Amino acid sequence: MSTTLTITDRSAMSAEEIFEELKARIGDYTPEPELRMQAELAVEVNQLKAQRNAVILGHNYMEPALFHSVPDFVGDSLDLSRKAAATDKDVIVFCGVRFMAETAKILNPSRTVLLPSLEAGCSLAASITAADVRALKARFPGVPVVTYVNTYADVKAESDICCTSSNAAAVVDSLGVDTVIFLPDEYLAKNVARDTGKHIIVPTRLPTGNLHFADDVDFQMVGWNGRCEVHEQFTVGDIDLVRSQFPDVVILAHPECSPEVVDAADFSGSTNAMIRYVEQTKAPRYLLLTECAMGENVAAANPDKEMLRLCMVRCPYMNQITLQMTRDSLRHMQYEIDVPEEIRVRARRSVERMIAIG
Asked: Is 273 buried (19+), middle (13-18) or exposed (0-12) by CB count in 10 A?
């Protein structure tokens, strides 16, 4: 599986053909009746996709039956942002979460953007508001704001440039300044600060609602205390327990994990970087410290490699997106994502700067 995969055109495939493909990929742990049901749904989705002149974008965290049957492209946030920007289709169905669909709309104001579930939010994106960004800019005037793409449109609109986990350090370096504000993921910011040689400070919110910064005159990065509710659950203790049972395992950690977990892992990178690592290396077995569905997708794409699972925590938002909901989204043209034009125009500048960095 390449990092941005153009899926084989399945629009003309029968349910039996899709069933056989799913069986080959995920049949080892999915009962055949489930696979047949999913194959029937996939046929409906592909037919509706053709009727609506739609493109389906699937994030790496999508559940395996969907991931391996209906997207035209799969990848991480940066890859899919590029695909959204380049599409000539009338309708974009984003199998991901709301901030991703918003980004597609920011880049494609004239196209209809659909999110299959209104419940597909993001706790990290919800950890910061546009008002929070304005308060930080007032506190640190003239300091450029780098905002993780895992944020909502109004926050992007207050930012100078966006980034993804794959290009965050490059974005910070591209600014050519001594000090930056990096929002909202505390752990990603700390990992990037280390990679770019910057000392970071992170505020705490007082009961009054005001922000408090510890006295520290020597800093080059201002962070925020947002965290991904999945990645913050992984601990060094988890890694130690896995290594005690599988001493030869290669552990890959997403940079939304804590710096301590990243240090204890063998490799850290974005979802696409982890995919490339598995594809290009040989190890007895691998463990990905990220949303568990991705481990299943990587295992399905690399049947010759053994993947361990650490699935005590699943993303409740990514798991909202299913084949049935994707079908219903196209059938009923629901749920359409809109971004107010004044916010969209300002957010687009920061997103386009991110895409240009690569």
From this structure: middle
